[in-house]
Design a protein that fits this description.
Length: about 375
């Protein structure tokens, strides 16, 4: 019997994004709002100016992309794969698969801003060669060129990202440095707390100056910092546990030759939503609730389970770290993880199991703290 292959989490794609290229094997995506933003810029700066502005913005986003590639390529040196890079109107995001160690995270986080530092130095060189240095800027009346614009953009990108607060790269550098001396969850709380404080100050300035842009930046910084804190705290509850600790061992399976009518009855009989599909000892796939619903409406109650089941499923061993469940439950694919011991199905882990486990660990930690 062949051992089932775990399906990679990388098949899901973030919603509202368009894949525009693949660089170093990494899919590059653009969020739909970014295209809206470009359209808006070219409309408000109508006539010939609009085209120039659109060009400026595209050039800046090439720099943002190079920044993200800096993160991704250094991560790759440490064996950490990048799932994809998405460009949003407010910047770029490189999503790493897996969790780098603190020392690795430090270098990965620094790599992005360093790309902008190098680009700034190169741009200063170009300015001196083609425009005779900064003197043309001092005149005031002269037009700002693409070179000037890009230099300002890169210096801003480097400085802004080095602010030592989550979710900026500087926050990751700070977290990584702190994590060398204290537990990671604590380090994240400190770096995230600074981020939330900073967001508050920027938001306050935004309100006083009536600047929508500053208020938006404050909002995104606050959101990013809060998400990082909660995901790290959740992870810290999973650390040191295995799949066997959280999996359910009492669950029902369904035969591949059973009818959808039987599957529908099993769905109503208990609280289980997803059923491993078996034939003898072999697991062939998984039957999810939506497979049953769709199958019933397309093929009717007498159709076979095998014809509508999902053939790809996630499989791990009971000793696998529970933390790895995070990578196995991407947003678009909530199907349960099946746990095999020597090719025998012994357990199942659903998103619900995982969140219950976190809830219980949280409660235990609180009672110990009291
Ligand atoms: Zn960065």
């Amino acid at each position: 019997m062949s051992h089932p292959q775990p399906t990679a989490a990388s098949t899901s794609r973030p919603p509202w994004t368009i894949r525009v290229a693949t660089v170093f094997g990494i899919p590059i995506r653009i969020h739909a709002t970014f295209l809206l933003f470009l359209a808006w810029v070219s409309v408000i700066n109508s006539s010939a100016n609009g085209i120039a502005w659109t060009l400026f913005i595209v050039a800046v986003f090439v720099c943002v992309l190079l920044h993200e590639l800096g993160h991704a390529l250094v991560a790759r040196r440490f064996g950490v794969h990048t799932k994809d890079i998405t460009l949003y109107p407010i910047g770029g995001v490189a999503v790493l698969e897996g969790r780098p160690k603190p020392k690795q995270e430090l270098w990965i986080a620094l790599a992005g801003p360093m790309v902008n530092v190098v680009l700034s130095v190169v741009l200063v060189g170009f300015l001196f060669v083609f425009e005779g240095g900064f003197s043309h800027l001092m005149g005031g009346a002269q037009k700002i060129t693409l070179l000037d614009f890009l230099l300002v953009a890169n210096v801003t990108l480097a400085l802004f990202n080095l602010i030592p607060a989550f979710p900026m790269d500087g926050g990751r550098v700070l977290r990584a440095a702190l994590a060398m001396a204290m537990p990671e969850a604590r380090a994240t709380q400190i770096a995230g707390g600074i981020g939330q404080g900073l967001a508050f100050v920027i938001g306050l300035i935004g309100v006083l100056q009536q600047s929508i842009v500053l208020m938006l930046i404050a909002f995104f910084i606050f959101l990013g910092a809060s998400q990082e804190i909660s995901s790290t705290v959740t992870r810290s509850f999973l650390q040191g546990h295995t799949m066997a600790d959280a999996m359910q061992t009492r669950f029902r399976t369904i035969m591949s030759g059973d009818s959808l009518e039987r599957a529908a009855n099993m769905l109503l009989d208990g609280s289980q939503h997803d059923f491993p599909v078996i034939n003898g000892d072999e697991v062939l796939g998984i039957l999810m609730r939506n497979n049953i619903v769709q199958g019933l409406s397309m093929d009717g109650p007498s159709a076979y389970v095998a014809s509508v089941m999902q053939r790809e499923f996630k499989s791990v061993s009971p000793d696998a770290p529970l933390e790895s469940a995070f990578e196995l439950f991407p947003q678009a694919d909530p199907s349960p993880i099946l746990i095999f011991k020597e090719d025998r199905l012994i357990g199942m882990l659903t998103l619900e199991n995982l969140s219950e486990f976190v809830m219980l660990e949280h409660a235990k930690a609180r009672s110990i703290g009291r």
